Amino acid sequence: MNFEHDNLSGGQENLTRLAADIKSWGRALGFDEVGITDTGLSAAEAGLAAWLEAGCHGQMDYMYKHGLKRSRPEALVPGTRRVISARMSYLPDAEDALAVLDDPARAYVSRYALGRDYHKVLRARLQRLADRVAQSVPHAARVFVDSAPVMEVALAEKAGLGWRGKHTLLLSRQAGSFFFLGEIYTDLLLPVDAATDAHCGSCSACISACPTGAIVAPYRVDARRCISYLTIELKESIPEAFRPMIGNRIYGCDDCQLACPWNRFARKAVEPDFAPRHGLDGARLAELFCWSETDFNERMAGSPIYRIGHERWLRNLAIALGNAPSAEDVLAALEKRREDASLMVREHVAWALRQHDGPHVQGAV
Predict the structure, then answer these.
(1) Is 340 annotated to bind ligand?
(2) CATH second-level architecture of 1-94+115-214+263-276?
(3) What is residue 147's predicted lDDT score, i.e. its pLDDT?
(4) Are the beta carbons of 212 and 65 closer than 8 angstroms?
(5) What mean pLDDT, rounded, does the chain reach?
(6) Which residues are annotated as catalytic?
(7) Can you tell me which residues form the catalytic site (predicted)?
(8) What's the pTM?
(9) Domain boundaries, the chain
């Protein structure tokens, strides 16, 4: 990046006008809110270092392999002077989340993953926004959506889009926390927005709601205990101690968000791509467990769930089936995969069958 924008015709007045235009253009592209911040993340950098040192990242080695690039935008993209942060609501018109969680025969999928992969949706919109800016002022820019070493919550907080809640997610007084974040790194020296005040107060609803106690302290999550980590990021067998706590959550977990009082203001998504696909907002566990690898690949194409692959999909479902009532379809589904080709799947199926404590457990792995 080597453009010199400080001497644009009209100077700071034009940049202030451009910042207002960027927010307007962003809203027209479907973003609920857009903010602008500088690149200073020293406080967040210290917190990240302590979190990594404690091993709270588990197997997510990508959290530290880029060194300081995560907390220093100008190190990731040389020449970066400002970050344009944007949020987009994703809560779909779907089966009631709590109703699904209360029905152990049905599969709970985190609300963000019910529709099309958000990476593609947001990245395309952010690129259109960056291109629109370039029509007014030539600038060097890069777009990010949860796909690079970027501290998106810290940047969004500095940009005035909300504050970090005790569950570590960004919270907004206008929209709760059911939204995606994305960023544009730019060399434009735009005016920055003021951060907002925090409004969690003494509330600890999210901490109490976590099924596995993963929120080990306010503003600190130990990923190794988090159901989202266990069902999505962990590539190995899920520790037995956590399996009963997972319940019927087969991909991710929203409990901390569902318990948060601010989410009474959560906005329903207007983006059609976030609508549930293949009935995943309330499908029966036994039905999903019968999907072949071909079924999974075809139906999950374009979904964030695709990244875990069929084997981990079955692993997660086996746990949920082990936690389900001992209904005929549940036991039949598990029996069919007793001799699955995957050792990991067989091990989880055997555990699930043991939970039902019947004669069908003979010969289990």
Answers:
(1) no
(2) 3-Layer(aba) Sandwich (3.40)
(3) 82
(4) no
(5) 94
(6) 146
(7) 146 (proton donor)
(8) 0.93
(9) 1-94+115-214+263-276, 215-262+277-361
